[in-house]
Amino acid sequence: MASSFFAQRIPSVSAIFSVYTSLSAFTILFRTILNEIIPVKVRDFLVSKFTDYFSSHFNSNFTFIIQEQCDYVTNQTFRAAETYLPTLLAGTSTGSLLVRSINLKNPMAKPRYGIPVKAKITDEFQGIPLEWTLHSEKTITLTRKEFRDMIMSDYFTYIAKSSVDILKHIENLKIHTYNPHNREWESAVFQHHTTFETLAMETELKNTLIRDLDAFSKGKNFFKTVGRAWKRGYLLYGPPGTGKSSLVAAIANHMKYSIYDLQIQSVADDAMLRQILTSTENRSILLIEDLDCSGTDASCRNVNQDEKEGGENQNKKKKKEVTLSGLLNFVDGLWSSCVEERIIIFTTNHKEKLDPALLRPGRMDVHVLMDYCTPVVFKKLAALYLEIEKHDMFEPIEKIFLEVKATPAEVTEQLMVSKNPDIALRGLVEFLLSKKLTKKNEDTEIKEAEA
């Protein structure tokens, strides 16, 4: 009875074929009318809307794409994810890991592990499972359909805060140099040993710098309140060999900031300079050394002016180059706010050659004279290299320093001759007396020439 009932309800093959034929004919007719009446652009728009609608409702995943570059600056969300994801190595679903040993001081140290390209990393946030994928060194994706709003509002903020905490406790700093051919920063591990504890410098000046750096690191709210970019500028000037580079290293180690060492001579023009500097990270040091030789000082500009007046090198005059205004605009102009918590350090051997515009307050907040060796600096060097606090020869050596100019680098070279304090200090006395005699002879020759 039941079988006969269902047999009556099931349509015949001919009926199904008839319905299929009718639908096919209707579809062809509808497509023809659609193509004839509706313009191509309107059809494409409708198709795209239908596709987006069905994809958003029936696709099981939603993907956030995070790329390294965003407009003219580095994508800080990418940097935060790049810092945060290595802490999730336990959640990688790949059969491989990057193994790196970057401790130059201890080759036997435990290696560090990284995430290879194409690897998938799982994370959990407030009970929500998440999946990251490292597609390349410049693109990361995060996949999840549900809780999209929470991820956008809370999870990315959590990653940003976590990355800041991680960077504050980072063990290995980096020093970056710009490669103009590849148009990108290249980095190496920065393991300079100089700290403020080992830096040979006048005690009062050293303490002043430490207080200034500490106040800067805690001054985010202050800079925001007064409406200034969160940055600090230092000008280190003095003769070669007086410890300018060592002071930069001490600042980097004290602040836990990586260094971006920019050779301004290799930058083509102002546009390239903006592109280079906006691709640096927060909490970093921008170092421009030998500013007096960069072409932005007054002497170089005077030479260029003389060439223009003489009508020489017409082809060279048309060549683009970094201008003083371009550099100033980034140091103290609108572009200076692109990166937060930045320290800008310029070094020069000849402060008098710099354009006065570079020395204006607000651009170089602190001017630090790295001078010749003093008795205080000498004692610090002797304690470091000879491991002595007192010696009978200290007093006569200190008296010679009042008459002879010697750089800390020259003194260090003499102290490293021997571990025996007597031998090293005698050699230093002979070196200083030789410099004194040479200086006396030069002064005599000058006076005779003037006479």
From TrEMBL:
The chain crosses the membrane at residues 12-34. GO terms for molecular function: ATP binding; ATP hydrolysis activity. It comes from the Eukaryota. Keywords: ATP-binding, Hydrolase, Magnesium, Membrane, Nucleotide-binding, Transmembrane, Transmembrane helix. Pfam families: AAA, AAA_assoc, AAA_lid_At3g28540. Its cofactor is Mg(2+). The keyword Transmembrane helix applies. SUPFAM superfamilies: P-loop containing nucleoside triphosphate hydrolases. It catalyses: ATP + H2O = ADP + phosphate + H(+). One of its GO terms (biological process) is response to stress. Residues 230-374 form the AAA+ ATPase domain. Signal peptide: none annotated. Belongs to the AAA ATPase family. BCS1 subfamily. This is AAA+ ATPase domain-containing protein. It comes from Eutrema salsugineum (Saltwater cress).
